[in-house]
Amino acid sequence: MAGVLDSFAGRFGRVEPRRTAAAFVTGLLSDIEVKTCWQLAEQAGHARPDAMQRLLYRAVWDADGVRDDLRAVIVDRFGDPDAVLVVDETGDLKKGVHSVGVQRQYTGTAGRIENAQVGVFLGYAGRDGHTLIDRRVYLPVSWIEDRDRCQGAGVPDEVEFATKSELAADMITAAVDAGVPVAWAAADEAYGNSSLFRAHLRQLRLGYVLAVSRSHLVPLDGGKVKVRADRVAADLPASAWQRRSAGAGSKGPRYYDWAWLDDVTTDADPDDSGRHSLLIRRNTSTGELAFYRCWTPQPATLAQLVRVAGTRWTVEEAFQAAKSQVGLDLHQVRRWDSWHRFTTLALAALAVLAICAANAAGEAEDDPSNTGLIKLTVNEVRRLINTLIIQPIRDFAHRLHWSQWRRRHQARARQSHYTRRLKLELQP
């Protein structure tokens, strides 16, 4: 844990916010259920939440700089020239209208349109492990067109509307420019259906395996005809399918049937000197199909493309761990800077778990005595950190002080709400 925290300690000009940041990340790793500034301050032994709130709102530090330092630590541990950058989005359900980027919009978290705030994230997956390395909050058009609303949430004036695929492309470009070792990109069909996103990856010379919809038009016969992806699959003979594993899952190898058309041409840039293909996955039990547009700067094998397609699920695992273990979705912040700061510190806590789990797995492989145990998961690593490192404060006076502080603060808030409502009712 110290290695991750030390990596960005220099981003804080004063010792107070530096210590608070370390306590903040430690609190995110703790076993407290709700991880707001109040609970994190109590866990850290503070008398009030002011220091934690100041860290997110007013303290002087660069969240993007911390992000860069954190990315360097992750690459130092998981760096792999054949690694995969995986992009995806996740939403946090909200009740109000003031949190930056919030509006009624579709989010996979709920599986429907809800009042939500959506963030686009970038994951890094190497052979030794994976975690999240970057983040962007998505601002809908309704926000960008309302500059007063943006100003109220602290959105910088230079921020313009960007689609989710543009945010993803921006994060991938930043990673490549920073020298992150990587050969591939993967994403679901929300990004794979974007021809501009695919073209951007080709300009970076990144191979990709991007999911596309079943109605996606596939250019065949030198681009002279375009056929729906599901129609292409329906016309394939039985001999076109091969059974291969997309990687190990919680219940063993994830076997699917795969078909590969390696003669697909691009309808966007026929002179990119790469190899375009269509990959089709069929569920062995249900027969459900999934489709992937693929491109590689050099010839690739079916095994390579299948591996990258299977790697996309690492971002889902990272989201689950980030939300269940370090409170990625438990923030109660509204402003632009606060969202990026909280999220960056949550990614730091997640990196601690991922690196500790990878280190433990490496030590187990070197140990000649096989105990019959599974590898340490991030969930179990967090339990051990809480048991062996984080010492919760159980002092009676401290707990009583916080109980009184919360009740006093809640009494003031209630009085304020009552006064405001009375004024509204008395207005003509």
TrEMBL record:
InterPro entries tied to this protein: IS701-like, IS701-like_DDE_dom, RNaseH-like_sf
Pfam family, any one: DDE_5
Signal sequence segment: none
Record domain Transposase IS701-like DDE: where: 8-218
NCBIfam families with a match to the protein in the record: transpos_IS701
Protein name: IS701 family transposase
Lineage: Bacteria, Bacillati, Actinomycetota, Actinomycetes, Micromonosporales
